[in-house]
What we know:
The protein is an all-alpha fold.
Amino acid sequence: INIILQKDNNSYRSFYNALLHEGYRDLAALLQDGIPAISSGNRSSSMDGMTSYVKTILCEGGVPQRPVVFVTRPKLVDAIKQKLCCLGNDPGWVTVYGMAGCGKTVLTAEALRDHQLLEDYFPGGVHWISVGKQDKAGLLIKLQNLCSRLEHDSALSQRPPLNIDEAKDRLRLLMLRKYPR
């Protein structure tokens, strides 16, 4: 409890939610009176600090929602944000890696919950794809879906790619012509 109290209010709230969801309702009830109030003194219009613009962009792009039990890790989120901002000057990739279950998805999604980052560096939105371990058929479906999403408002819209090589070629052209950043 002392460690949680040294962190921000969201940590206490997340700990409380974890107790509730993991079957420790009696312990959670003891902590219920101490749950900090949520302040809304920033420019956002929601309880979790996201503007409606951010919610819309992330929802349209398929970015995972924040988990019920969430602990902030601002240094790691800021590191990912800085790398994403570098893509504005030099197009490329940001790779987040680590053991399964260590929080790569949560951290990366959290970095995208920044209004200014999305507005300045991702004006066309984001497209989130969870690939994981896929057989060739599963990978082809993921690539076809991405092609469809990227071509949705384009005159380039065509039939779905029939194989992985065709999908890779189409995505390469889309990235070069339509989404160079």
